[in-house]
Specification:
Layout (H helix, E strand, L loop, with lengths): L2 H21 L13 E3 L3 E4 L12 E6 L4 E2 L1 E10 L2 E9 L2 E6 L3 E2 L12 H6 L3
Length: about 130
């Protein structure tokens, strides 16, 4: 191989290596002892995956606190909130409610968990 070919091959290797690093999703590491994810802000829980819900119809204020870890039961596409339409159904303190995925550090902007089923939606409660 000529020097010109070697230089081109080296440049291509660097380019492909760099692209591979960008294309690989970076998932958040779950809590060391569980399959739980960090809550990044204090958030309200909702019976439905929608930001605008009157308090009387199913909002539990301060449902999750910043810094705690939660398990995601399932995820549901709902109304957009904070730049995402993905909502996580999480159980905590005797309730199973939806919270915006934006505030649960899953390490991805896409879905991480299975979609919610009709049974999951029936379980959601305040």
């Amino acid at each position: 191989m000529t020097k010109k070919h070697l230089a081109a091959a080296a440049a291509a290797a660097i380019l492909f290596t760099g692209l591979g690093a960008v294309a690989t999703p970076a998932f958040a590491a779950p809590h060391p002892d569980h399959d739980e994810f960090l809550v990044t802000a204090t958030v309200d829980g909702r019976l439905e995956p929608a930001p605008e819900m009157p308090e009387a119809k199913g909002i539990r204020t301060d449902f999750l606190k910043e810094g705690q870890y939660v398990r995601i039961s399932c995820q549901q596409v709902g109304k957009e909130a904070y730049g995402s339409k993905i909502w996580d159904l999480v159980a905590f303190d005797g309730s199973e409610l939806f919270v915006p995925d934006r505030f649960v550090k899953t390490g991805t902007d896409g879905s991480l968990s299975r979609p919610c089923t009709a049974e999951d939606l029936r379980r959601a409660n305040v």
